[in-house]
Amino acid sequence: MKISDVNLKIILDSREKETLDADLRGLSADLRGQASVPSGKSRGAHEALVLEPKLALEKFGAIKPRILSREFETQEEFDNFLISLDGTPNKQNLGANLILSLSLAFARLKAKTEKQELYKYISSILNSQSSILNPPRPIFNVINGGAHATHPESKLDFQEFQIIPEVNDSAMALGLGQEFYEKLKYFLEKKFGEANISLGDEAGFSCPFKNNEEAIETLAELIIRHHYPLKIGLDIAASQFYQKDAYLVNGKKYSAEELKDLYLKLIKSYNVLSIEDPFSEESFDDFAALTAQNDNIEKSNLQKLIIADDLTATNPQRLQTAINKKAGNAVLIKPNQVGTLTETLAVIKLAYQNNWRAVVSHRSGETMDDFIADLAVGVNAWGLKAGAPAAPERMAKYKRTLQIAANG
Length: 408
What we know:
This protein is an alpha/beta fold. It folds into two domains: 5-34 and 45-115, Enolase-like, N-terminal domain (Enolase-like, domain 1, 2-Layer Sandwich), CATH 3.30.390; 126-407, Enolase-like C-terminal domain (TIM Barrel). The chain is 42% helix and 18% strand. The chain has helices at residues 53-68, 75-86, 96-113, 118-126, 170-192, 212-225, 256-270, 284-297, 316-325, 335-338, 341-353, 371-378, 392-407, and strands spanning 5-12, 18-25, 32-36, 137-144, 160-165, 198-199, 205-206, 230-235, 242-243, 246-249, 252-254, 274-276, 305-308, 330-333, 357-361, 383-385. It starts with a strand and ends with a helix. 52% of the residues are buried.
């Protein structure tokens, strides 16, 4: 496939921070692929490097002629070409944000060239069976804590307090999420006062909760009161409160063993379905210990997910280490952690080959690009994390899954 033109510009993400938008053109006017990339506030140490957008624009000017001078037959060929131009292990030359914007825009252009829906194009690369009948579960982040909190008196150490619908229908799941979100808003306004409610980075509510369990209890109470088919999920983001071999939670220091016992108590007390990043980003053995005990208690229940994010950073070597150590049973997939669609799909393939689940995720600084919805459907992901069912940049992803389901 010949690319007739390629351009890059700076746009603002949902946090009003600069990010990149790429535009690739084919040989006819109707062939065009665009993609913009998100950015994360809480980044793992093992993520590929993100360049300052203005510097990325300068780098792009140098490689644009080389992109236009070649033809690319496959996604892998295009992505590997970008990787070779960068020439570093962690994308520090061109930046994962520059490379990813081009990689995703190429995918959209190639899918259009082949007259395929994007999710089907992605599925064909992975050689997977995308499933409209079993869509990815939306994971709604309805209370924001940790690095994503905005209320100055929030005492939430955990980063995300989520609800996960237990229905196999995208429209019904989104409807449940939106209804719960509105009821939660009303509940919190009565509890804290309207002036004490703000929105966090991912459109979840940020309030003066005294501790993590108070927030979990709030979700559990509403679920029970209204008989909602919902489960609770948690993104702990434990690296954010890890200090000198201890974890500072609710003002108290916990060892890894004590923190593991706390998680097991929460799983049992509130029937928590998933826990992401329960320990710091180097703690493979602690992840493994929690996973082993979780395996023992789950036999009579729905399988609980121990999700690795900062631990694995969408990196095949780190995921392989986690697999070898049995440090989890699900991997979070963030394309901008690794930098190309090809590398992202390689990580997902590795997870599936080892009976791990995949959860595709947005970032705290998002754009209106809905690529990850097609990615989640195309790889038949267990779940899709796109934030609260409210802000437009979050809803764009959820609405795209509805569109895919409607079009079949």
